[in-house]
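Cross-posting from the modeling subforum.

Setting up a comparison between two proteins and wanted a second pair of eyes on the formatting. Protein 1 (sequence, then structure tokens):
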Amino acid sequence: MGKLVGKALVVVLVFTSLTGCAFSDPRIFGTPASPSANPALTSDQAQAATQIQQAWAALAGLATLDPTTPRWAAMADTLKAQWLVLVGPDPINRVSALNVDIGAANKLATIQDGTDTANDTLQTARDSFLAQAKQATGTTAAFWASLACSAEQIRQGIGGTYNTATPANQSATIQVVDEKTAVSNLISSYDEGVFAMRSAMGFLDPGATGVQSRYQTVLGSLLNDASSLATVAQGMGITQDTSPPIYQLPPGRDSDASLALLASTQTSLIQASAQWVASANDPTQAITYMMNNATVGMPLGVGMAVWPGWPDS
């Protein structure tokens, strides 16, 4: 699904890690240098990696103790992917470490032991990451805010659902723009999301009242969040284009197409809200919005790896 005309689009940049040259010119020697660690992260990176590793160990222990509950392994996989990036050479651009052992899973006596440890560790990590995000700017702020959102989503998944987690775009990062443009892009994402949910509900079996109700809840949440964002935009002097946009729908008119619309809506909102965080001089308001609305506030009922590049497998 994508907007064809009428609104501004969120622009993403694709980063590729270069590990060697494909040229045959014999005058080219050596291997390109590895990316250096981002100095804005180094002082707190080790602590963050430790917190993620501890949460991983608890959830990996739960996956071993209770293999019939698939969300333990899904959440552990997400945390391991994050940990590999945190200990890698360039966390901002998500260059993962290679051949690094994360350690051993916790040996648990009971499920309660594991869930208590994971809950407490993720809660502490969330608060720490939020504090780091609010002290930073640019993509560094978006990086920490996204880690905080992911920690909270996984924490909520301990007592909920994380079986069918949908990763965000794994090859995209956020382009920093001026803050008004970022907010306008987020509003456009909400406009498109409202259209998507209304279309998705039309693709569903009318007899599937439970599923219809679930999508209606998502639609209501999007409308409420868009309304509150419009108030923010008004205070910033942002005037929105009122011309009717034209959207492209995914192929098919069935439940699978509805799920595709739902996933694309979440991904769009995540990327647009992260852009707002990265583009704000003071990211506090944008971070709060990203945490409470665009990510963990989505009433979908499944987990989401919120930062592009945090896959669930």
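Protein 2 (same layout):
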Amino acid sequence: MQSFTPRRWTLFGGIALLAAAAMVVTSLQVAQADPPTKKLQRELRLFERIMDDMLIDSPYWLVPGRENTRAYHVPGHGVLVTFQASLVSERWNGNWSGNGFSLRFWDRDDDDYYWDDDDDWDDDERDKDRRKSRRERRSTRVDRLYDRGKEEIADIFLDFPDSFDSVSDNEWVKVVVYLDSDVFYDQDIRRLEMSARVSDLKAYDADRIDESAFIDKIVVEEY
């Protein structure tokens, strides 16, 4: 069996020491990163309030209350804005849980929500078609609310394009919505991201691009 000689132990020890030193230097560099400027801190807080006000008044987004929005600046990447939400409807029963608000559409005649005895559940073809039709209408209603909600986020970009003057042009403003897992019944979507490059925001603010061109530049990701 081959054994390590003292020379080899010295070599490996030196490598380990260099690796540890590199980690310490990296940690110090992260710790010494400059905090956001006072101006950027004000911009972040103001954008949080703007987004919170929109969400509270929104006929589409359902949120747990104010101060739901959090905005951060990641140097080299841009501004990250997050909030948790579900969707509302004219007929809804929302309950806040650890996973967020749950969207529930209730209908007196909807067999999906009966809890009486087994006689209340009629499995003939007519009732199956009726339940399928209700599910389709519910899905259409959810899709419509969701699309309107995305338009509201785009409107925030359009209405406040000068929100981050102190952020570099090549960085982004990314809004991340943590969607309640019960909102979508047939789609596996838990996150919505809508991102606008700061240079595009400034170009729109200066009338160098119009509203339609700016909206086309917004990057939308769902997963």
